[in-house]
Amino acid sequence: TPGPIAVNMATFIGSSQGGFFGALLATLGVVLPSFFIILIIAALIRNLLKYAGVKAFLGGIRPCIIGLILATAITMLMSTAIGFSGIGDTLAIDLNGIIIFALLIVISIVARLMLKKKPSPILMIVISAGLGMLMYSL
């Protein structure tokens, strides 16, 4: 999928060349191809999951995906809550960020244990936004 830079560039260039409708068409031109590809994959995934090779492939890449997500989470935690962006950088611990991170972990674990299901990612984002607004406005 196109990232935010590609979408913003398409919107900006479309706007500068063709006004509002240029921006709209350029943005749609960047976003729609990947959107339709995802729709096609979503329609075919049920049929593809019947094949043992596809199941084995998806099962094999699962640990890699978990590792990538964990590495991203650690990097984000280090750059936001601890303030570490690279070697030679001074550390500036953001206590509010660490508290929000810890609260989200606790909420996630409690929800999983008590409700016997994973908390909604959208709900977790809303909770983290609310906690961030509350803690950083004080």
- Rg, nearest Å: 21 Å
Total count of strands: 0
* Number of helical regions: 4
Percentage of residues in DSSP E strands: under 5%
Q: Give the overall average pLDDT.
A: 86
Q: Secondary-structure element order, as H and E?
A: HHHH
How would you sum up the global shape?
extended
Summing up helix and strand content along with how strands pair, one would put the structural category as mainly alpha
Helix fraction by DSSP (H/I, runs of at least 4): over 70%
Uncertain runs = none
> Main beta sheet: strand number and arrangement?
none
Determine the N-to-C terminus distance: 38 Å
What does this structure look like?
This protein is mainly alpha-helical. It has a domain at 1-48. Helix content is 81%, strand content 0%. It has helices at 4-48, 52-80, 95-115, 121-137. The longest helix has 45 residues, at 4-48. It is extended. The protein starts with a helix and ends with a helix. The mean pLDDT is 86.
